C-alpha cells in the first residue's frame, strides 16, 4: 500500500521565483514543514491509505485529530478548524464520463501548504498546474488559501461548462415544439431532471462549504477570495432551479395533452352511445317475439320505423351541434 500511495502522490513546491514538481520514494520525504517563502501543493489520488495518512501526519507533527477525520469512510460537507489547519471535505461531480458520478474530495489547508486528497484519479486542475509551472498570473505570489480558491473555482467552472453543454443538448431534444405525450419524450424529461438534481446537490454542497469557509478565522488564511465564487455557485443553482421549473411545466403540459385527448375520445364515444341507445331501444322493442304487436302486420311499418330511427339520429346530431358539443 505504501508504494501505491507514493505512486499516486505528487508535490509541487513553488514560490515567486521557484517551481519544483516531484514524486516521492519514501514517506519520510514528504515534508510539510513551513519554509520562508514557498508554498506546497500535495495531491493524492485515493482515500483508502489510512496508514500512510497517519504516518505523514505524525512525522510532520500535524494535529493528530486529522487521523480520526481521515479514517471516516463517508464525509458530509465539512469545514473544521484545527491547530493552525483547516480540514475541508465536499462531494464533487465527475463529469468526464457519459453519466454523472460523484467522488469525495478532502483538503487539508495551512498557510504554507495544501494537501488535496481525491477519491478517484483525474481532475479539472491542469490549468492551475500550468499556471504554476509557467508562472502565469499571480498564483505563485500567493499562499495556499489562494490555491484553494483556484481549485474551488475550477470545480465550479467545470460544473458551469458541463451544465451548459448538457443544457444545449437538452434544449434541442426537449424543444417546446417537439413536446409529445410519448414514453420516449417523458423518459428524456425525467433523465434530464435527474441530471439537474445531481448538479444541484453538488452545487449546494459547494455553496455550503464556501459559506463555512467565509466564517473561519485562522492565522495566515485569507477568506476574502471566497465571496466571488459563492455568487457563481448561487447563479448556477438559480439556473438549475429555472430549468427544473421549465421541465415541470413540460411534464404538466404532457399530462394536459393526454387528458385532452382522453376527453376527446370519451366525448366521441359518449355522443355515439347517445345516438345509438334510442335506436337500440326501438330495435329491441320490435325484436321481441310477441305475436300481437300491432305494427308487425302493418304494410309500411318497417319503413316507418326506419324513418323514425333516421329522425331520431338527425335530431340528436342537431341537438349536439346546437350545444356545441362537437
UniProtKB/TrEMBL annotation:
The chain crosses the membrane at residues 269-288, 300-320. It comes from the Bacteria. The keyword Transport applies. It is found in: Cell membrane. Keywords: Cell membrane, Ion transport, Magnesium, Membrane, Transmembrane, Transmembrane helix, Transport. It catalyses: Mg(2+)(in) = Mg(2+)(out). It holds the Pfam family CorA. GO terms for cellular component: plasma membrane. It is a multi-pass membrane protein. Belongs to the CorA metal ion transporter (MIT) (TC 1.A.35) family. This is Magnesium and cobalt transport protein CorA.
